[in-house]
Specification:
By secondary structure, this protein is of the alpha/beta class. Among the domains are: 72 residues, no CATH class; 97 residues, no CATH class; 139 residues, no CATH class. Helix content is 47%, strand content 7%. It is built from 32 helices and 14 strands. The chain has a 10-stranded parallel sheet with strand order 3-4-5-8-9-10-11-12-13-14. The protein has a two-stranded antiparallel ribbon with strand order 1-2. The protein is elongated. Keywords: Acetylation, Leucine-rich repeat, Repeat, Ubl conjugation pathway. InterPro entries: ARM-like, ARM-type_fold, Armadillo, LRR_dom_sf, LRR_Zer-1, ZER1-like_C, Zyg-11_UBL_adapter.
Length: 750
């Protein structure tokens, strides 16, 4: 499994994905600027066309950035250039005209799952495939037997009396001579199933999930051919059981039910199970999940607990199954008491006893039974939270599949996103490939996009915290930032989500390239953080959200002049002063705010806006701050060093005097311990090195030299290479020769 999850995508998959995302540049051209047309010299076999269609459906469903094309299915209208054989279409993605477009194809397999937009027009289209179709699913296509009836009459009448839907009663599978596999799950009430199916000569597999039929006697017409029968959620009776017992060719029988969905009169008994074992001798798979046993089918408990667990029918803890010739391949016992017994004669069991049974349940029920799957995932969540998952990769794959398959099912999104949080945490980290972790990120972002619901949003944000940020989120950088800003811009906010989202935003803009920062700035990042700060200030609270917001602004303005300018334009300085006044003791806050102002001060064009008596006085007073070690004092001195660098003529204020501030700067720098460990992270020394080759402000030169000396001596492995790479050595050598530089600065430089 590890190897499988790690292997790269096949070339076929990569090409399919590329072509679908660039149809115009590859297979197609645009006719009249709107209709996609296939290039005339393209001929594609069914292996490629099937994959294009199936992958297209998958992309529309799971990738929010992917744009569906109105005319996509028309590309496959002519079997002479494009062949289709096996296609799987889902949900609202497919409409009547899409099926109509491909009616000339010789389809062998057509799965239509929950395609609620299909109407009786598509039933007529199905007839076009009748001579080739072997396998057909209409699962959950709840409108496909309805046609619109227009009462006629004048326009006004139509408005009062809009089109009514009428059930089509005359459709049958007449002429579908090759059809062997049919799924009619969740078929609409009122359709006569017996009449519908009678023309089919030899059915091998039939799924009638969720359909209530009092009489299933007609099934015996296929007693020599039917190998698979699914009657999930059908309320059974003695008559049903007698009919099933006659279908002696059955290899797979599913009479399971959702025990929460409604009241069922039928109870399973020892006699019914005996009847199945005696009559259905070919049975390899049986599902009786959700059933209540009317009587005790288990062997005495002393005998049951003995020996090692066995799949041998002779040792079975479930008495009727002792009559099996060989163990079953699959036995569905989810939400029954039987799954907790010791000896179960099956290689694969779905149940709620342990991780293996729970994973088998998720695997078996995901596609068509989200109501069961969400409960199974909930059990997995408990296992992952309390114990350790032993089949981690399988668990992750199954949860990812369920979340993708049921993007709009709230229960699955809540339980699935919660399970993902525990399945991706650090103790499982080593076992996961990049590819798998990217799939997790994709489904988490899908969940955030589809659901504004608090629990889903919180689970998704928490799960993202399990990843290395920004590295692992880089491939979805824009999207993840947009989603987080969207959460933070909502008028009513859940406190905990707000905290996690701000933390994520901060981590995303830390240590990334400037073009990323500029892009996020343009999305409204600066404005969003300032609004959060404004709100917290109004509440007089300085919490993590307040500190993270300032930290995020510090990160996003680093060497990014556009974002610095935005900070000033959106009254950032006013908020800075108000926060300083309101929270005089908050050291961490002061450090973050001054770090940010250091970034602003590095931008020459913006420095004049900092040149006011009020701001300069504040910065000067902060030189004496002992907050957070030397950090606040250091950052205040950095801001002033850049301002001093513009020379005496830029000092456009009377108070305080420039010389007085210079004196205070010297005093501050001399008070710092040169071996201070630092709470700061430089990606580049460029803004500091700028202050070395100049004679206009010796104190700025000294601050820059002190900063470099401290960083390369306390963190030599990290900062020595950076200093050399950015050309710091010749700049220091030149400065040592300068007459204007102070002696102590030269000593430090040396």
């Amino acid at each position: 499994l590890k190897m499988a999850s790690d292997s790269p995508e096949s070339l076929m998959t990569l090409c399919t994905d590329y072509c679908l995302r660039n149809l115009e540049g590859t297979l197609c051209y645009l006719l009249d600027n709107e209709t996609l047309r296939l290039h005339p010299d393209i001929f594609l076999p069914s292996e490629i066309c099937d994959k294009l269609v199936n992958e297209y459906v998958e992309l529309v469903k799971t990738d929010s950035i992917f744009e569906p094309h109105e005319s996509f299915f028309t590309l496959f209208s002519d079997p002479r250039s494009t062949r289709l054989a096996r296609i799987h279409l889902r949900e609202h993605i497919v409409q009547d005209q899409d099926l109509e477009a491909i009616r000339k194809q010789d389809l062998i397999e057509l799965y239509l799952t929950n395609c609620e937009k299909l109407t009786a027009k598509s039933l007529q289209t199905l007839v076009s495939f009748s001579h080739t179709l072997i396998s057909l699913s209409l699962f959950g296509c709840c409108n496909i037997f309805y046609e619109e009836e227009n009462p006629g009459g004048c326009e006004d009448d139509c408005l009062v009396n809009p089109t009514r839907q009428v059930l089509v009663k005359d459709f049958t599978f007449e002429g579908f001579s090759r059809l062997r596999i049919l799924n009619l799950g969740r078929l609409i009430e009122g359709v006569n199933v017996e009449t519908l199916l009678r023309p089919l000569a030899s059915l091998a597999a039939l799924d009638l999930s969720g359909i209530q039929l009092n009489d299933v006697g007609f099934l015996t017409q296929w007693k020599d051919s039917l190998v698979s029968l699914v009657l999930y959620n059908m309320d059974l009776s003695e008559e049903h059981i007698q009919v099933i017992a006659q279908l002696r060719k059955l290899r797979h029988l599913d009479i399971s039910r959702d025990h929460l969905s409604s009241y069922y009169k039928f109870k399973l008994t020892r006699r019914v199970l005996n009847l199945f074992v005696e009559n259905l001798v070919n049975l390899t798979s049986l599902d009786i999940s959700g059933h209540t046993m009317l009587e005790n089918c288990t062997i005495p408990s002393m005998e049951e607990k003995m020996g090692q667990t066995s799949t041998e029918p002779a040792k079975s803890s479930i008495a009727p199954f002792r009559g099996l010739k060989r163990p079953l391949q699959f036995l569905g016992l989810f939400e029954t008491s039987l799954c907790r017994l010791t000896h179960i004669p099956a290689y694969k069991v779905s149940g709620d006893k342990n991780e293996e049974q729970v994973l088998n349940a998720i695997e078996a029920y995901t596609e068509h039974r989200p109501e069961i799957t969400s409960r199974a995932i909930n059990l997995l969540f408990d296992i992952a939270r309390i114990e350790r998952c032993s089949q981690l990769l399988r668990a992750l794959q199954l949860v990812i599949t369920a979340l993708k398959c049921h993007k709009d099912d709230k229960n699955i999104q809540v339980t699935g996103s919660a399970a993902l949080f525990y399945l991706t945490n650090s103790e499982y980290r080593m076992e996961q490939s990049v590819k798998l972790r990217r799939q997790v990120i994709q489904v988490v972002l899908n969940g955030m996009e589809s659901y504004q619901e608090v629990t889903v949003q919180r689970n998704c944000c928490l799960t993202l915290c399990n990843f290395s940020i920004p590295e692992e989120l880089e491939f979805q950088y824009r999207r993840v930032n947009e989603l987080l800003l969207n959460i933070l811009n909502q008028s009513r906010q859940d406190e905990s989500i707000q905290r996690i989202a701000v933390h994520l935003c901060n981590a995303l803009v830390c240590q990334v390239d400037n073009d990323h920062k500029e892009a996020v700035g343009k999305m409204g990042f600066v404005m969003t953080m300032l609004k959060l700060i404004q709100k917290k200030l109004a509440d007089k609270t300085c919490d993590q959200v307040m500190e993270f917001s300032w930290s995020a602004l510090w990160n996003i303005t680093d060497e990014t002049p556009d974002n610095c300018e935005m900070f000033l334009n959106y009254s950032g300085m006013k908020l800075f002063l108000e926060c300083l006044k309101e929270f005089p003791e908050k050291q961490e806050l002061h450090r973050n705010m001054l770090g940010l102002l250091g970034n602003v001060a590095e931008v020459k064009e913006l420095r004049p806006q900092l040149m006011t008596s009020q701001f300069i006085s504040v910065f000067s007073n902060l030189l004496e701050s002992k907050a957070d070690g030397i950090e606040v004092s250091y950052n205040a001195c950095g801001v002033l060093s850049h301002i001093m660098f513009d020379g005496p003529e830029a000092w456009g204020i009377c108070e305080p005097h420039r010389e007085e501030v210079v004196k205070r700067m010297w005093a501050a720098i001399q008070s710092w311990d040169i071996n201070s460990r630092r709470n700061i992270n430089y990606r580049s020394f460029e803004p500091i090195l700028r202050l070395l080759p100049q004679g206009i402000s010796p104190v700025s030169q000294h601050w820059a030299t002190w900063a470099l000396y401290n960083l390369v001596s306390v963190y030599p492995d990290k900062y020595c290479p950076l200093l050399i790479k950015e050309g710091g050595i010749p700049l220091l050598k030149d400065m040592i020769k300068m007459a204007s530089a102070r002696q102590e600065t030269k000593e430090m430089a040396r």
